[in-house]
Specification:
Strand content: 5-15%
Order of helices and strands: HEEHEHHEHHHHHH
Largest sheet: 4 strands, mixed
């Protein structure tokens, strides 16, 4: 409580819109950093805020964002900001609650936008044959499909679980290779030879080449 109170009390003078603690610190797990997202009307020189937070605890790791960028990222279902939104507001609880209500259900526009993101990434991957383009196509497709079911993707460590939850018309081997593409980005699994080409083929046949 002392750290929370100190953050709240010391940030009051800076007129921040919201300050949200998130991550392992509030989950009462072992932690290295105390993650806090600070929402400001405008991003100016934030060095004074950083200095004040360091005086409270050198492990405080602030991320700064404008209200406009924060709300835009929530409106398009950005997993990082949706995950932060589940955290503990130490300033701006009313504002955070309003954001939570607006972000509770993906809109039809957002669902369509994520399909477009996935399609563009697929077309890049089809041309480049690069892992990252293939990963982005898979990531946005999973997010699009989850949103169609009314659920946001909030945990970037669980893309393989989301893939299983979707019960897609894919055989077991197809699911495994897409899962490797999704989880390799964070170093959780190694790719096998031909994975990228195979996933590009699956994405095209199942979703994108008919568009």
């Amino acid at each position: 409580m002392a750290t929370r109170d100190a953050i709240r009390n010391n940030l009051q003078e800076f007129g921040v819109t919201a300050a949200i603690l998130f991550g392992s610190f509030i989950e009462q797990k072992e932690y290295r950093d105390i993650d806090v997202l600070i929402v400001l009307e405008e991003l100016g020189d934030t060095s004074s805020i950083v200095d004040v937070l360091c005086e409270i605890d050198a492990n405080i790791d602030p991320t700064f964002v404008t209200t406009a960028a924060f709300e835009e990222n929530l409106s398009i279902g950005n997993p990082f900001y949706l995950n932060v939104l589940k955290g503990e507001p130490v300033i701006g609880s009313g504002y955070v609650e309003r954001c939570r209500r607006r972000a509770a259900m993906p809109s039809g526009e957002v669902v369509r936008r994520y399909f477009d993101f996935a399609l563009r990434a697929y077309r890049r991957a089809k041309w480049s044959k690069e892992y990252f383009d293939c990963y982005v196509a898979c990531k946005f497709l999973i997010e699009h499909l989850m949103m169609k079911g009314g659920v946001y993707v909030t945990d970037p460590h669980r893309y393989d679980s989301y893939l299983s939850e979707l019960d897609l018309p894919l055989d077991r081997d197809d699911v495994r290779v897409i899962s490797r593409i999704l989880m390799h980005r964070r170093g959780d699994v190694e790719l096998c030879k031909g994975d990228i080409e195979r996933v590009i083929l699956i994405l095209g046949e199942r979703w994108f080449d008919r568009v």
